[in-house]
Amino acid sequence: TVLAVVKLQHSWSQIFTGETITLRCEIQGGEGKVWKYEWTAPNTNSPPTSSEYRISRVSVSHSGDYRCRGSSDYLLTGWSDAFRLTVSYNPRATLTAGTTIIPVGGSVTLTCSVQSSDGWKYEWFRRTQRTSEVQIRDQQNRDIRVSQGGNYSCRGTRGNPVYYTDISDDVTIEKTFSNKVVVKQQPNWPQIFRGETITLTCEVQEGGETTEWEYKWRGPRTPTQWTHNNDVTFRVSESSSGDYMCKSRRRDDSYSSTEWSEAFTLSGSILNKPTVTLQPSWTQIYSGETVTVRCEIQGGEGAQWTYEWRAAKLNTPPTSNEYRIIRATESDSGGYSCRGRRDYFFSEWSDIITLTVSSKPKPTLSADNTTLPVGGSVTLTCSVNPSSSSSGWIYFWYRDNILLNFSSSDGQLSVSQEGLYKCKGKRGNPAYYTHASQEVQINKTSEFGFSNHK
Is this entry keyworded Protease (predicted)? Predict the structure, then answer.
């Protein structure tokens, strides 16, 4: 049996517009004879009479069924089975990268492919911002390894004459520098409060000082594009808290960069309102006493603050957290408040604490009985009024103007000797003394039941 068969010269599963192909008519079982050939084909009025059907620059309109038959002397084969030719539009190569970042001292693999077709060799291209597109020599494989940064592209080639696919989209490959980068904060305070203004700086280390760099940031309050500025300045708020990282690249090579820095964590603390306290903690002060007014900022203990004061009599207010009033006078009475300042950042003003300076007090001395019972005693009570706001006193006692070797904080003294008694109060450091109280005469009861009056 003699059969005609149509075969494609190339074993490609897909044919694309613009390629040159050859179909061949083979007469199986008819070897040794001289054959003439007939073809049926789409899109042609004059098919060839040879065993080969060559189509230069094939188009989609060439798709269809191709058949052939042969004749030799009086022998005529039947028509071959149809060979279905499918022509697809010009393909675009696809470039994929295992990773787009070349590690320090390493390389990455690039892969070029043309749909699901076969028979291709590949051309590779690279360009940078300083060089136009250049073909990479001696590279025709589907996979290549590269160790330089740049924009890479590829295309497929096959056939004779050579057929080219459309060139792939670019893939940008970045090379990693060994230089380390760090994020630093200015001012370099261990604690940052919401409302303060800070600057974060991206620093390239290990010899980066002689290179012109540009910088990229990751963080809540940073630009997303490359910039020539290596710092960002902003007011700290709740929305600015988070992790900040940066990396750098040379200005003349946008395809090489450092690794991302380690994360710098910014957390803006909430600053409490300052409080004013008195030391000693007496709100009732007497003229001549020494008292210290202190400004305390809870939560801001580690910060270097300068303090501002609002006070009744401060012509030149101190900048420290303490204001010491030595030998207070009544003109020191009034409200005291403070706030903390660090650079251009201010805390709130504290609530006002009111200091009252009164004239030097005279204690009140009283006795539960001015006559000593036989063999008994009486109780003397010394107090500085008003006792509710006047505290911290220690009381001293005198009998007939001689200081007794006794003091008490409760202001009471039990006596069993007659005499003329008086008392004084003392408190503070340095010690502050009241005036002496009025005198109280304590008499002794005679053995006949009468008082002795001296």
Answer: no
Residue range 364-444, CATH number = 2.60.40.10
Q: Are 415 and 443 in contact (CB under 8 A)?
A: no
* Boundaries of every domain in the chain: 3-88, 94-175, 181-269, 275-358, 364-444
| 181-269 and 364-444 share one fold | yes
| Closest by Cα among 163, 85, 162, 168 to 125 | 168
Sign of CA dihedral 148, 150, 156, 161: negative
The CATH code of the domain at 275-358 is 2.60.40.10
The number of residues making up the chain comes to 454
Could you read off the pLDDT of 176-217 as tens digits, one per residue? 988 899 999 988 877 888 888 899 999 998 766 677 899 999
Residue 294 banded pLDDT, cuts 50, 70, 90 = very high
Q: Which fold would CATH assign to domain 94-175? A: Immunoglobulin-like (2.60.40)
The DSSP call for residue 155 is E
User: In the prediction, which pLDDT does 454 show?
Assistant: 43
Confidence (pLDDT) at 345: 86
User: Residue 251 gets which letter from DSSP?
Assistant: T
CA distances from 130 to 70, 157, 254 (A): 62, 28, 10
CATH homologous superfamily of 3-88 equals: Immunoglobulins (2.60.40.10)
pLDDT for 90-140, tens place per residue?
A: 899 999 998 999 998 899 999 999 987 788 999 999 988 777 778 887 778
In what order do the strands lie in the sheet containing 275-279?
Answer: 275-279, 291-296, 322-325
Cβ–Cβ < 8 Å for 95, 154: yes
- What residue type is assigned to position 366 of the chain? S
pLDDT digits (tens, 9 = 90+) for 347-393: 889 999 988 888 999 999 999 999 998 889 999 999 987 665 567 88
* Preceding peptide of 47 cis, ω within 30°: no
Is the peptide bond between 190 and the residue preceding it cis, with omega within 30 degrees of 0? no
More confident residue, 218 or 299: 218
Q: Quick one: tokens of 452?
A: 């002795």
CATH 2.60.40.10 for the 181-269 domain, yes or no: yes
Q: Is the pTM value of this prediction over 0.85?
A: no
Instruction: For residue 155, give the nearest of 104, 115, 98, 207 by alpha carbon.
Output: 115
Question: What is d(CA 12, CA 19) in angstroms, rounded to the nearest whole number?
Answer: 12
Helices (H), 137-204: none
